[in-house]
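Dear Dr. H.,

I hope your travels went smoothly. While you were away I took the liberty of generating a structure for the chain from your last submission, since the lab meeting agenda had it listed for discussion. I wanted you to have the full record in hand beforehand rather than looking at slides cold. The sequence, exactly as received, is reproduced here:
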Amino acid sequence: MKLLSDLLKDLEYEASGEPVEGRQIDRLIFDSRKLSKDCIFVCITGANFDGHDFASEAARMKASAIVIEKDVLLPEDNSLCIIRVADTRRALALLSAAYFDHPAEKLKTIGVTGTKGKTTTTYLIKHMLESAGHKVGLVGTIETIIGSEHIPSKNTTPESYTLQQYFSEMVTLGIDTVVMEVSSQALMMHRTDGFVFDLGVFTNISPDHIGPNEHSDFDDYLHCKSLLFRNCVTGILNGDDEHLDGILKDHTCTVETFGLSKKNDLRAENVELINNGNTLGVGFDVKGLMEFKAVSSFPGRFSVYNALCAIAVCRHFDVSTADMCDALKNAKVKGRIEMVPMPANFILMIDYAHNAMALESLLTTLREYEPGRLVCLFGCGGNRSKLRRFEMGEVSGKLSDLTIITSDNPRFEEPQDIMDDIETGIKKTDGRYIMIIDRKEAIAYAINHACDGDVIVLAGKGHEDYQEIRGNKYPMDEREIIKGILSGS
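The corresponding predicted structure, in token form, is as follows:
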């Protein structure tokens, strides 16, 4: 049991009903399905349900206290302590931090925000720090890693209660550092309130996540990203991004920059593309705050930014240049330009690019390596915008030598209908294409018809190991499919 007064120490609130002092709390709850006796129930307004509608149920279940931001209906004979706040999502974050005894204070916390590069950068940082002997936890789009446990992610940044619970488990295991992706949605919804990041990191920003259920416009998206730099001690930012000033508006942190231009504190010079026939990479000279030669196992200029970002972060942990270089050469991220070893003289990679902007960036980068052919295999998700299908088709048609249109996660749509929409986009170009509805057959076609010097991209699925059809998720890991094709099974 915990004292309610202890949980409320960092909160501004008005109390009514039963007194706060001496009140004991058994559990912290924000899901009405988990209401129980002596809990404190935080009423969250969600997209589909409003926790305030369950306030009377909390009273019936003999909850100890409820936290609200608007009026609720309660039985007259309730025995609740009623805590009114301006924003219950922020209250949940502060309460969660207190409930788990402020575990972030016992960790070095690194938060990475940006439109692209968050996932790869967090894994690079993790690899670098671990090579130097640190015990590192990770929270991100693919998974949360706590010691040997890998927890698949539902959101890039989990709800504040879950996040603080993860931090607490990390502390228990002796983990000293956590690196995490921080989405604009998470910042907007206060999921990372309740602690201050030691390091806040900005990779880049471009229009994304703009729509009825996310951000109203780009300015709102930019504003939410900028909130990280009002809640960290040191900010490490891409100094080449055109929106840097907007990201730093009203910042409260010390600022360091990285990038390719000479104005940055840490920069890359003499960038060279590396193609050894089976893998692609990039080499560059690190200049400024550190000076050494680096080689990354990820291709393209955007990989230079990711590498520089990781170096800039790990410099604060006294990671040696040798450990940095080793991590850059050997780090792999599932589904992020993931090279799959091939027995022949062509390159095959898996990448999560699932919208036109990401696909264009990836294919443009690979074009710089002057492949014999650039082959792009992809589909689009069902029950999503048709515009994305047209755009991705057009991008692949312009940049690929051959596009293989196939199925992704059709959900409740017919796969052929989705593929026909992609075809509409590709027909705006002169690009060659074929359509193979079964993704396994499509991948087999790409491998069996590969030529020397080809670069083949399996785009859209990335780290996903399933295919979603008619409400069910069926196992489908592209890595396993490739193994089967190569073994003849």
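Two observations you may find useful: The chain has 15 helices and 26 strands. The chain has three domains: 2-99, 103-330, 338-487.

With kind regards,
E. W.
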